[in-house]
Amino acid sequence: MDRKLRFVEKEIRKANIPIMDTGENPEVPFPRDMIDLEANFEKIENELKEINTNQEALKRNFLELTELKFILRKTQQFFDEMADPDLLEESSSLLEPSEMGRGTPLRLGFVAGVINRERIPTFERMLWRVCRGNVFLRQAEIENPLEDPVTVLNQTEDHRQRVLQAAAKNIRVWFIKVRKMKAIYHTLNQCNIDVTQKCLIAEVWCPVTDLDSIQFALRRGTVSPPQLAMFSTVFSGRYIILLMGVFSIYTGLIYNDCFSKSLNIFGSSWSVRPMFDIYNWTLEIWNIATNKLTFLNSFKMKMSVILGIIHMLFGVSLSLFNHTYFKKPLSIYFGFIPEIIFMTSLFGYLVILIFYKWTAYNAKTSEKAPSLLIHFINMFLFSYGDSGNSMLYSGQGTLNFGGIRVGNGPTEEDAEIIQHDQLSTHSEDAEEFDFGDTMVHQAIHTIEYCLGCISNTASYLRLWALSLAHAQLSEVLWTMVIHIGLKVKSLAGGLALFFIFAAFATLTVAILLIMEGLSAFLHALRLHWVEFQNKFYSGTGFKFLPFSFEHIREGKFDD
């Protein structure tokens, strides 16, 4: 239908007929109205095609007849000039009149008929050859059946104008109706069919300001509007909630923390005597000592940094698959490899220092252990003369300097320049290369990556803060609620413990599971979306164009 309307619109514009625009915004027609619209459009299209065909034929015949009229007028002048018999020598006979009477009587005949005009020359040549030149041919046009072509042409043009003027009054409304239906069915084609084959399923974005109108349209289309929207949202994220629960149990086992209490799973390995064995799993029960928070603070902070650096290195490794898929070998050599070297030579080195410090110092020498933070800052400042912060090992200054130099290797800007030089030798239509813009763009990219690695590593410390906050809240609930019931040893204490545990369970679910769980989910989502994905995800796609009837009404039709 859209194709037929475009044909009618082209004919209207060809005839210089203005299209009427009343500003009307019609509703989307029902499916049953599509048949009537299509039949009406097909009727107008066929009528216009028939008029155009007849008009072209009439114009062609009119041209041919006009040419014939001028030819007859010109040839008539030739015959008038030769009408005097005295001027022709061929008119005098070679024989005497008396001798002509004694000859054999002449046997002459004639044939009359009708023949197409274009066949006359061929017919004349054929008669000349068959009769050996003894033939006299005359022809005349048949004028009676011919009609006045100007009148017929005017009538055809008037009829065409009436059809186009009638269509010009409604074509704008027709366009809006058809393209609204086209846009709706195009959107429906992107939906998935339900297993019951009775409905279509799709996930869409919509402006918050249009939620009321969308709900109104849904209520108008069905008797029972959707209910339990909040619980359906939770049900949609059931797998994320399951993963959060599994990893909460996992981290609880790592830190030996269950409702703010430590479990004596394998017994205690702590002893005043020299210790040479390692605890089998998690933190042992002795962490209930007074220096528990001091130890866990340092341990959780270092664990957050280690997990963050491993996570970011995994993200940089994923960029290798992007470069391989898009066939950019130079981006691998000058982009992926320098990024990996930068991360490992600086932050990977920091992880090695953390493990080295854990193994190099025992309980007696831990007071003399240097600060890794100060060491890391001094490494960038090339300052190794701080007497208050001793070296971790011999030759650390030389190794730190080498790590800084390796981290400042070639960057992706070199790959961009070389890549363009190679492309320019193979394509003459390549985009004009501006060395200055490329240098500025890639320099900004390099600075963002280097600073981003530092800020992203610090951002993973939110895991440490969340763990401490969750542990403290759990300890407060245990101490201020459930511990009250456990202190009473009488029978009344057991009865009170029943109600106290109900309050404890309610507060645990409301505060620890829902509020703290939502907070942990949002922070984890942030770490995945920003710190992790910016190592490999470019986000170069196409602009999102929301579905809107307003664009269709204004004539902004998008394919």
UniProtKB/TrEMBL annotation:
It is a multi-pass membrane protein. The chain crosses the membrane at residues 228-250, 303-321, 333-356, 492-515. One of its GO terms (molecular function) is ATPase binding. GO terms for biological process: vacuolar acidification. InterPro entries: V-ATPase_116kDa_su. Keywords: Coiled coil, Hydrogen ion transport, Ion transport, Membrane, Transmembrane, Transmembrane helix, Transport. Its main location: membrane. Residues 34-68 form a coiled coil. GO terms for cellular component: plasma membrane; proton-transporting V-type ATPase, V0 domain; vacuolar proton-transporting V-type ATPase complex. It is found in: Membrane. Essential component of the vacuolar proton pump (V-ATPase), a multimeric enzyme that catalyzes the translocation of protons across the membranes. Required for assembly and activity of the V-ATPase. Belongs to the V-ATPase 116 kDa subunit family. V-ATPase is a heteromultimeric enzyme made up of two complexes: the ATP-hydrolytic V1 complex and the proton translocation V0 complex. The V1 complex consists of three catalytic AB heterodimers that form a heterohexamer, three peripheral stalks each consisting of EG heterodimers, one central rotor including subunits D and F, and the regulatory subunits C and H. The proton translocation complex V0 consists of the proton transport subunit a, a ring of proteolipid subunits c9c'', rotary subunit d, subunits e and f, and the accessory subunits ATP6AP1/Ac45 and ATP6AP2/PRR. Interacts with SPAAR. This is V-type proton ATPase subunit a.
